[in-house]
Design goal:
It contains nine helices and ten strands. It is α/β, with parallel strands linked by helices and about 260 residues long. The chain has an eight-stranded parallel barrel with strand order 1-2-3-4-5-6-7-10, surrounded by five helices. The protein has a two-stranded antiparallel ribbon with strand order 8-9. The chain starts with a strand and ends with a helix. The model has no long low-confidence stretch (mean pLDDT about 95).
Length: about 260
């Protein structure tokens, strides 16, 4: 049985996780749309002391693949800062989106920028904890939406030992069939470290990243449970509804995985 938890509010993530009935929780250490360095969390001591499994999600704006120096360089900086802060509270790993380049860019440049991110980090001693790259839902020039591009990315960064997060909503909305998704991901990355178990409000290949509670969106809940079972990794639900909505999704997985 995998450890099953939820993405929770950052104000008091431990209390929010306990209210949800989670065995694990994921949260942001800073504004997910901001560039500020994370500061010591007000509940850091309690988070470090908890028996629950802790994951930190890097800000959404992090895009180390970008060809724009004003985005790529600050992205590398705050990714390192969030890794240090996550390690400081005893997090198991730091989750980060695969990022993208613009329509006029060569995707190979974005992939090489990812390689350089790990290379530069190793030169300064490494990130200190696992970096888990997450598949994303939209963008034709995304690094981790289509699995053919994901394979190119892993060819470039796999030697540095990154982990992988499989988001079910993102895969569905990104146009990847879910029936054999675990096997196809493992054939590329060799691993799935975490599943983000989310239903999707929008249709297959819509490119829309809008999560839904199980049974209210476009993905059969049984398919999500099958993916979690096959992946054999920890699971985080990022669904709406707070303790009630997320709690129901967690209960479903515990009964069906």
């Amino acid at each position: 049985m995998p450890v099953i938890g939820a993405h929770v509010d950052s104000t008091d993530p431990l209390a929010a996780a306990q209210a949800t009935g989670a065995q694990a929780f994921q949260f942001f250490l800073a504004d997910p749309q901001g560039w500020k360095k994370p500061v010591e969390h007000q509940h850091a001591d309690a988070i470090r002391a908890t028996d629950l499994t802790v994951y930190v999600h890097a800000p959404y704006i992090v895009n180390v693949a970008s060809t724009n120096n004003r985005i790529r360089i600050p992205s590398r900086k705050i990714l390192t800062q969030h890794a240090e802060a996550a390690m400081g509270i005893g997090a198991k790993a730091l989750v980060v989106h695969g990022g993208h380049v613009t329509a006029k860019d060569d995707p190979a440049v974005g992939i090489d920028n990812w390689r350089k991110t790990f290379e530069y980090s190793q030169e300064s001693g490494g990130f200190g904890l696992p970096i888990l790259v997450e598949n994303t839902a939209g963008g034709d020039n995304a690094m981790a939406r289509r699995f053919d591009r994901l394979a190119m990315l892993w060819d470039a960064i796999g030697e540095y030992g990154p982990g992988f997060v499989l988001d079910t909503c993102h895969a569905h909305a990104g146009g990847e069939e879910l029936s054999d998704v675990v096997d196809r991901v493992k054939a590329i990355t060799g691993r799935i470290d975490l599943v983000h178990a989310n239903d999707s409000r929008d249709a297959f290949d819509s490119g829309a990243d809008r999560h839904a509670n199980f049974g209210t969106g476009q993905i059969d809940a049984a398919v999500i449970a099958d993916i979690c079972r096959a992946a054999g990794s920890d699971v985080i639900v990022e669904t709406p509804g707070g303790p009630e909505g997320q709690g129901a999704d967690i209960d479903y997985l515990r009964a069906n995985v």
